[in-house]
Design a protein that fits this description.
single chain; alpha/beta; FAD/NAD(P)-binding domain; Enolase-like, domain 1; 3 domains; 5-stranded parallel β-sheet; 10 helices; 26 strands; binds flavin-adenine dinucleotide
Length: 416
């Protein structure tokens, strides 16, 4: 008897959705079941801290594909459904209602959750004005509270924090950003770009308290809202009154399912170049996966849409038995105050930064070199630079710093 093969995908996010549609596009003919615990079909998260928070995008515009597409592709969507365990011996995913879904291949695409701010003794869930930002539900909970004149204390000066700062200012909300680091985006960029971005935010009235450590919060009498954020700056304790608090201090990958099933986990679910975990019948992709990177020369876990999409296509090809290695060259974009920032590579360990263009005109690129090789670039308002930089960074090209800085030399001419 012919038994149809089944791929079960756990997590209907950016990567999970792309695995499902990619399987069909690449010719997979078996059953595809996409299980997600959110109420929505796969959607894009980037607008959550940008256009959707600003109210400029409607819910349906977030969806990666209309629901009808999944039907057309014969993909079974099981939304609002949590996978609670993976039984590798039986090759079954266990759902929250106790039912089981048999699989031939399982793809874990569980993403991550916002990292919690340690606030000992405080029941954060009960606080109506303390927010984290990962999902549509999170934005829906906070958006109506972003009223002109309110004061938002943003904990974390990373991308999500700065994008929310930009949106909040545009909504008339006053913003104070607190971070333990001495400068914004300190984990991902050099001081030149940090200084520039901080300057743009300051011009729009954002106040920075950095480096400052959050010591705790004070609550209202009912213990249902934060009243003040307590910070220590230069050894002095201070209290910042807050109407709203948003914590954006990073992501914790959702690896518990994999770990409980005995799969290797080390800052993400450990996978090979083809997205296979330590069990070849189980793959993992996107934010939850830790993959080898030829570019980085080590294992990395990436948190970005391009990685989620590329990694998903790699997994689909692996399922189909025509494996292609993951490219895993990190790239990312952000939008703040109408500026588009694009980054490629990892600048960690650079020994020289060369800039091209004009910070005043908000059109410049910062190139990061290590021992003469281009390892990363941050590009603001110069899309052509970005396209060339992607190619140069992917091969860590040896480039003449003078040519990088000289606007008369076309960057594209340095490629190849
Ligand atoms: P997710 O999209 O998080 O999807 C995982 C899904 O799995 C979720 O729906 C989750 O609820 C579900 N799930 C988890 N466990 C289970 C379970 N046991 N059972 C069923 N379902 C489960 N990237 C960029 O490149 N550019 C940007 O500008 C950018 N901006 C961002 C702004 C915000 C506010 C956020 C939150 C992220 C942003 N990102 C951006 C990052 C990007 O969205 C992520 O890298 C991407 O969504 C990762 O896709 P993923 O599928 O791995 O995880």
């Amino acid at each position: 008897m012919y038994v149809e093969e089944t791929v079960v995908i756990v997590g209907a996010g950016q990567a999970g959705g792309e695995v499902a549609t990619s399987l069909r596009q690449q010719g997979y003919e078996g059953r595809v079941v996409l299980v997600g615990d959110e109420a929505h079909p796969p959607y894009q998260r980037p607008p959550l801290s940008k256009g959707f928070l600003l109210g400029k995008m409607q819910l349906a515009q977030l969806y990666l594909k209309p629901e009808a597409t999944y039907e057309k592709f014969n993909i079974t969507l099981k939304l609002g459904t949590r996978v609670t365990a993976i039984d590798r011996e039986a090759r079954e995913a266990v759902l929250q209602d106790g039912s089981r879904l048999g699989y031939d291949k399982l793809v874990i695409a569980t993403g991550g959750r916002a990292r919690l701010l340690p606030l000992p003794g405080v029941e954060q869930r009960k606080l109506g004005n303390l927010f984290y930002l990962r999902s549509i539900a999170d934005v829906e909970a906070m958006r109506a509270r972003f009223e002109a004149g309110k004061h938002l204390v943003l904990i974390g000066a990373g991308y999500v924090g700065l994008e929310v700062a930009s949106a909040a200012v545009q909504l008339g909300v006053k913003v104070t950003v607190v971070d333990v680091a001495p400068r914004v985006l300190s984990r991902v960029t050099g001081p030149e770009v940090s200084g520039f971005i901080e300057g743009v935010h300051r011009e729009r009235g954002v106040v920075f308290r950095m480096p400052a450590a959050v010591q705790g919060v004070t609550l209202d009498a009912a213990e249902e809202a934060v009243r003040e954020v307590i910070v220590a700056q230069d050894g002095v304790e201070d209290r910042i009154a807050a109407d709203l608090v948003l914590v954006g201090i990073g992501l914790t990958p959702n690896t518990e399912l994999a770990a409980a099933a005995g799969l290797a986990v080390d800052d993400g679910i450990v996978v090979d170049e083809m997205a296979r975990t330590s069990d070849p019948a189980v793959l993992a992709v996107g934010d939850c996966a830790n993959q080898p990177s030829a570019y980085a020369g080590r294992r990395i876990r990436l948190e970005s849409v391009p990685n989620a999409m590329e990694h998903a296509r790699v997994a689909a090809a692996t399922v189909l038995g025509k494996p292609v290695p993951s490219p895993a060259v990190p790239w990312f974009w952000s939008e703040q105050f109408g500026m588009r920032l694009q980054m490629v590579g990892l600048s960690t360990g650079y020994d020289r930064c060369v800039t091209r263009g004009s910070m005043e005109n908000r059109a410049f690129s910062a190139f990061y070199l290590a021992e003469g090789r281009l390892i990363a670039a941050d590009v603001i308002g110069r899309p052509a630079d970005f396209q060339a930089a992607k190619k140069l960074v992917a091969v860590k090209a040896v480039v003449d710093p003078g040519a990088l800085a000289d606007e008369n030399v076309a960057l594209a001419s340095l490629v190849g």
